[in-house]
Each structure stands twice: as C-alpha cells, then as structure tokens.
Amino acid sequence: MAYGYYPGCSSHGTAAEYDNSTKKVCAKLGIPLEEIRDWNCCGASPAHATSEELSLALPLRNLALAEKQGLDSVMSTCSACYNRLKVVHETMKKSPETLRRISVVAGETYNKTLKVTHFLDFLCEEIGVEKLKEKVVKPLTNVKAVPYYGCLLTRPPEFVSVDPDPENPTIMDRVIESLGAESPDWSHKTECCGASLALSRTDIVVRLSGEILKAARFADADCIVVACPLCYANLDMRQSQIASRFGVDYSLPILFISELIGIALGIGTEQLGIDNHMVSASGFLAEKGLL
Asked: Residues of the chain whose pLDDT is less than 50?
C-alpha cells in the first residue's frame, strides 16, 4: 500500500534536499510514497492572513484530491503544510456547514476519510523508533544533535501537535537517539525563529534565529535538526546576516531530520544533498567519521 505524500512548494526550491532525502529514506525503509497528483500550494503563511476562505479552500482541495486518488493518508514533511492540512481536516470534521461552504469555493468535495500526518509521526507510527534503530548501519556515535521543533508542529495543540506535550515535545528526540546520536536537552526547542516574517521583518527573524543558534551552541550541539523548510531557511541561510549583526559566527550546521536519518542508514551525503547547504556540515561529519 502506498502512502500519500504532499511535498509542498518549498520542496521544489529552498527545501529540495528535504524532499529528496525523504524519498531516499522512505525507499531505504521500504515505504512506498505516492505524491498527490495536481497538488496546489496549501497557503502556508500568507493565505490565512489574507482570506479565511482561501486559507481553508487551498488545503481542502489537496485533501479532496488525495481521496479521489484512493489514498488513505497524507503525509507532509513541511511543518507549515502539515499545520494547514491538519487544521483544515479537523475543522471540517467539526463543522459540516464550513465544509459545505469551502467545498464550493475549492470546487472539490472532501469526505474527511484521510489520516493527516507529519513525517515525524508518520515515521514513528509506520516504522517505530525500535525498528528504525535496527535499520541503522552507521550509528551517529558522539554526535550531539539538538532537535528544533519550532511553532507549527505543536501549535495549536488541540489540532496539530505531533507530541502529547506541546511545550516539551520529545518525538524528534527519540528519532535522533534511535540513530545513535545524543539529543541534549536545551532551552529553545519550541521557540519561534520568525518563520513567515522572513521578508516583511527580517530584523525580527535575525534576532530570533540568532537566539536559537546561541542556545544550541550553549548546549554544545554539533548541529541543529529541523523538520520544517521555513525554520531551515532562517537558521541555515541567515547565519551570515546574524554574524554581521551580532558579531558572532556560529557556523552551526542545520540538518533536516530526513538527512540525519539518511546518514545513519548509510546513504551518502552527496545523494542526500547535504553539500548544498549554506553552512557546511562536512567538518563535523568528517570529524565523526560520517562522510
């Protein structure tokens, strides 16, 4: 049985490595993915600030297409996409009138049959951390990888949280530890990086992202592990701006969770796309014998 996959817009741009490494990891684990045909942008950050109907209709169309395709579930790697798909799914379950109205706007009917998951809970439910541990061929021994959840994986908790504790989630910690790495406790795992303010208020993004990098260094991290393209963009691509503003060059590698898993499963870093990151991870990977 194939699992529905919603890649989202960033998979074709700033997070192409996330999309690529996810597909390679799932293939290695024997998990067949089937991309939703003719999918559209879910609206992510700007739609709900522009129009309530647009913010609901865009994700609903994707869910309806997945149903028509005969899929039972939809998995997204992007926290923002997952958030929008899950919120709409839960909203439509609770409000038949909203479903009727938005179905007209979207031009599609959603029957609410899907299971909507993020890559993290998809992994834990379909594979399980113990089975994932059994698949590891290159243990990430002595690697300190701090998990960064950000905002959208756990908020609002009544709709989307991938972990029972939205204030101190541990689902990504458990995945990291199953790979043989250490997942140190740290202060900023659910702090906001600025996300959707990346263009409108760069000053805020640089300040917030700088605080996250500072906290990760304080925790003696080798890298920060993310599960969101927006978080990745702010933490990886803006390190030079952060260095210019605060006079601190963190040079801290940012890895997608799928890339970290891929390394442990024996997939080469070139195949995973890690060499394309703005902040190089080759130094600490070579030091740990993982290149």
From this structure: none
